[in-house]
Design a protein that fits this description.
about 75% helix; mainly alpha; 2 strands; about 475 residues; Sodium/glucose cotransporter
Length: about 475
């Protein structure tokens, strides 16, 4: 009976998620605004839950435990803490003004502030980065299905992608919000229950030099400080310009709701993510005492051996929820950006058929197929997920901040920043043998100049290049009468 609990429970969860998503399609009513930003009517509980779910991805759970167990608390905890920092900063500076603008997608901001050309370039960069983000979460789901359902890895990827595509393309952001609320609740309960079980039954023994008070992990390069700070920076700032993240800000019923939802989401992300970091510190000793040598993610080894089946199911579903909640936002956000911002399709209230809605749904199929192909070709999560956030930080954050708070920002400055920041990051990525401590198997050009000791530094250099060009070129091209073309 216990052997059937895990696969049966996982399948039941997927069926329920699919049903809720399809049910949410009744809210769309043929209107692209309902589909893309949930009619701009998300209440505080839904807005907070969906923002929290967007932050808690497979990196904040599965990747978190692997990194913390190998390199120490901060190596893993920087993932959820960075995402929580993003929500906190957004609450302070961005939630209210961005919600007030009444935008449909994030690239709309770049059109309003800098013109159509900047919108198009920003949209292309967002599509590239979020295709990587989608693929990374499909990879995590594929391995989870392979481990606990007994499927092959490719079949696991296809199964997850199909479920997410069906409910996302049916119900849009309504489906995303409703399923996110359930998924993040499961993640919260699963994280805290696992922490309690490990603490009561095995104790939380933290090896010397690896715990939260081992601050050398944040101050010494040989203890991983550069990589840890780069992770905090990439997630804490790079996720601010995430298309799925900002869609939730736009969908909140008011600026106050958007701000409060970010604050609640920030706290919830810490509560869900940090316990995984703490558990990971005790995991190697617990498994060693049981005579178990983990093959693959250390958390999976614990769930398969030392954790009761019922709790294992809860935690597995929590990890699966993290992948689903990010994958659905990536599909919806990327497909809407292609239709609305790259192809330039706008909502036409005079037409009985909403072309934007139709094209967004069609593009969702193509984006999902692209994510599946990337997941097949590059079956790892870390490089894909962190590179996606790094690209946003390198090219998109400065023009967003400048458009809101720097009156002399110009279209030329914004374009220079987006292109130079993103290209710098891609070139440095290609020249680095590792990225955030993970082997670069995506695209590496062997060289003698940049070694693993340089890891983390590209995250700081790339946005700095973009910032300098943004300020210099904006000052050179600024005219008081400048208006977007």
């Amino acid at each position: 009976m216990a052997g059937l609990l895990l696969p049966g429970g996982i399948i039941a969860f997927l069926v329920v998620t699919l049903g809720i998503g399809i049910y949410a399609s009744q809210q769309i009513k043929g209107d692209s605004v309902n589909f893309l930003v949930a009619g701009r009517g998300l209440t505080l509980p839904l807005a907070a839950a969906t923002l929290m779910a967007q932050s808690v991805d497979s990196n904040a759970t599965l990747g978190n435990t692997d990194l913390a167990s190998e390199f120490g608390f901060w190596a893993g905890a920087c993932l959820p803490l960075g995402l929580a920092l993003c929500l906190f900063l957004t609450a302070l500076f961005f939630a209210k003004p961005m919600n007030r603008m009444g935008l449909v997608t994030l690239p709309d901001f770049y059109r309003v502030k800098y013109g159509r050309t900047t919108e198009w370039v920003a949209a292309v960069l967002m599509v590239v980065s979020f295709s990587l983000l989608l693929a990374g979460n499909l990879v995590a789901g594929g391995y989870l299905f392979q481990t606990f359902l007994g499927t092959s890895y490719p079949l696991g990827v296809l199964l997850l992608a199909t479920v997410v595509l069906i409910y996302t393309a049916s119900g849009g952001l309504f489906a995303v919000a409703y399923t996110d609320a359930i998924q993040v609740s499961i993640a919260l309960v699963g994280s805290l229950c696992l922490l309690g079980f490990i603490g009561l039954n095995f104790g939380l023994e933290i090896p010397a030099g690896t715990g939260p008070m081992a601050l050398e992990q944040l101050t010494r390069a040989d203890a991983g400080a550069l990589v840890n700070w780069a992770t905090l920076l990439a997630l804490g700032l790079g996720d601010i310009v995430a298309i799925d993240f900002m869609a939730r800000i736009f969908a909140a019923e008011s600026p106050d709701t958007a701000q409060k939802a970010c604050l609640i989401g920030s706290l919830g992300t810490v509560i869900i993510g940090v316990p995984f970091s703490v558990i990971a510190l005790s995991a190697p000793k617990i498994l060693a005492q049981a005579g178990i040598i983990p093959e693959g993610p250390i958390l999976y080894a614990m769930l398969q051996t030392v954790v009761p089946s019922s709790l294992s199911l809860l935690v597995i579903v929590a990890i699966l929820s993290a992948s689903l909640s990010t994958a659905d936002g990536a599909i919806l956000g990327t497909s809407s950006v292609i239709a609305h911002n790259i192809l330039g399709i706008r909502q036409d209230s005079q037409n009985s058929i909403d072309q934007l809605l139709t094209l967004t749904r069609a593009r969702a199929v193509l984006i999902t197929m692209m994510g599946v192909l990337l997941a097949f070709k590059i079956p790892q999560t870390g490089v894909l997920l962190l590179l996606a956030f790094d690209l946003g930080l390198a090219g998109l954050l400065v023009p967003l901040v400048g458009g809101l708070f720097y009156p002399k920002s110009t279209q030329a400055g914004a374009l220079a920043c987006i292109v130079s920041g993103a290209l710098t990051r891609l070139v440095l990525f290609a020249l680095m043998p590792v990225t955030f401590g993970i082997d670069n198997t995506l695209f590496y050009i062997p060289n003698h100049w940049l070694t693993a000791d340089f890891d983390g530094i590209p995250t700081f250099i790339s946005p700095l290049v973009g910032l300098i060009l943004f300020v210099v070129i904006s000052r050179l091209t600024y005219q008081p009468a400048d208006k977007p073309e």
